[in-house]
Amino acid sequence: MLNTMPSLSALRAFEATARLGSVTAAANELSVTHGAVSRQLRSLEEHFGVALFAKAGRGLELTRHGERLQRGVGEAFTRLRDGCAQLKRDVEAAPFILACPGTLLARWLIPRLDHLHRELPELKLHVVSSASDATPGRDEVSATLTFSEPPWPAGVEVVELAAEHICAVASPQLAARFDPQRPATLFDAKLLHTASRPQAWPQWAHAHALDSTRLDRSLTEGQGFDHLYYLMEAAVAGLGVAIAPRLLVEDDLRTGRLVAPWGSVETPAWLCLWLAHSDHQGRSARLVEWLRRELNDMYLSR
């Protein structure tokens, strides 16, 4: 069956030229060269086998065949432009839904949420608690703020905000029993851990050259929790030594609720913002800028 549909790029070039009355003006609007538009118009005339434009002085005018095509094509492109513009308005008017794991949400984002709303009111931010691997673009999620490490998930843009540092923390009363020069003294206390971060203690122990066999035995004898948030509260209550991202305990360290006797260790993970697609000109870019500024101010205040 003969294909009677020409290329959309040729129809787009025709519509712009017919509406503006000039190949040059059409090329400027479409951000292509004059020659590119001319070639598209020639291919369209060859496709139909008739002339669509005739010279009129220094410009162009439609032939009767061109007028017939312009009526249908012009209406179609007008509807396309209107549909795209309406979708753009709808997207910009919709709330920006930021997914965030519960502990990161409770211990870092919520204390700064009022500040975020005041500085970025146009974001119309709506925050939801989610799993750390909530994928933007699904369930209306615009972005996910989470700790993760390479390889990054497929189908998302990952913006690295800050390298993750983890530290072993305890209540001031418990920390007083440890030697800051000897990390192995933490084995005298119960180790607190969570299934959501099984790699944290081994990473920390390796950085301090601690015996892995002794670590495994201490973790077996220690106390596990389902969520990092409960782990932190157990540490504050003096139940043992916990391991956590420094970012999530920074406020507790500053106020003295927790102590990190042996400092912090950098891991391969990052605090990241996962995006459904690149949007450096839109709301995502403004959120990235705010997060980086907030993190920088936080680290400078240490």
Automatic annotation (TrEMBL):
Belongs to the LysR transcriptional regulatory family. Gene3D superfamilies: Periplasmic binding protein-like II, Winged helix-like DNA-binding domain superfamily/Winged helix DNA-binding domain. GO terms for biological process: DNA-templated transcription. The keyword DNA-binding applies. Keywords: DNA-binding, Transcription, Transcription regulation. PANTHER family: HTH-TYPE TRANSCRIPTIONAL REGULATOR (PTHR30537), HTH-TYPE TRANSCRIPTIONAL REGULATOR TRPI (PTHR30537:SF74). This is Transcriptional regulator. It comes from the Bacteria. Residues 6-63 form the HTH lysR-type domain. The keyword Glycosyltransferase does not apply. SUPFAM superfamilies: Periplasmic binding protein-like II, Winged helix' DNA-binding domain. PROSITE patterns: HTH_LYSR. GO terms for molecular function: DNA-binding transcription factor activity; sequence-specific DNA binding. InterPro entries: LysR-type_TF_proteobact-type, LysR_HTH_N, LysR_subst-bd, WH-like_DNA-bd_sf, WH_DNA-bd_sf.
